[in-house]
Task: structure prediction
Amino acid sequence: MKSLLLGIGATLFFASNAHAATLIYDEAVNGDLSGDNLNPTLVNLSVGSNRISGSTTGNPNLDRDFFTFTIPAGLQLRQVILTTYTGLDGTGANQGFLAVQRGSSITSLNNNPPLLGAALIGAAPGTQQGDNILDDLGASTSIAGNSFVGFPSGRLGAGTYTFWIQETVGGIQNYTLDFVTTVPEPSTIFGIAAVTGLGTLIKRKKRGQKATIDQ
Result:
């Protein structure tokens, strides 16, 4: 039981520190993110905040950004916060396109097979600077007649995922996406602890009853 409590304590420590901001990739420092959907830039996520910062250009020299990462077993992607966003499309909409696909690449730029999720970000309520846009990606709302798989939970579990961001008109002057990973919530952890503790008590009680019968 002592080791269980220590494990719970360590998990709660990581959970309480999950939002300490960490810039894991900055195009201004690390170079341009890949523009090749089949060979995205590999980035590494840790527990908590994982910020990726970049910029894109629009047509006629369209620059797309692609990056991929693996969420380890025991973690989940809980939020993607649009920390900063300045679009250059020159219209009232001023929206960018963000998409996600399972696996280590975006296999098709034509949504065939359908992407796991996609959303227009930067302008509409819920997708503005400071908002969590992961649930918008999971909502599978149709864009320009295209439908997506979706993930109703609004979170992504362990596995490999590839993200794609672009804006076709004027590009994006700068964007920062904060990928927030967490361990299971404390309520879940305490529930596991309670069940484990109850199981231990039941075993002890059974051993006590057996000892009485054997006497």
In short: DSSP finds four helices and nine strands in the chain.
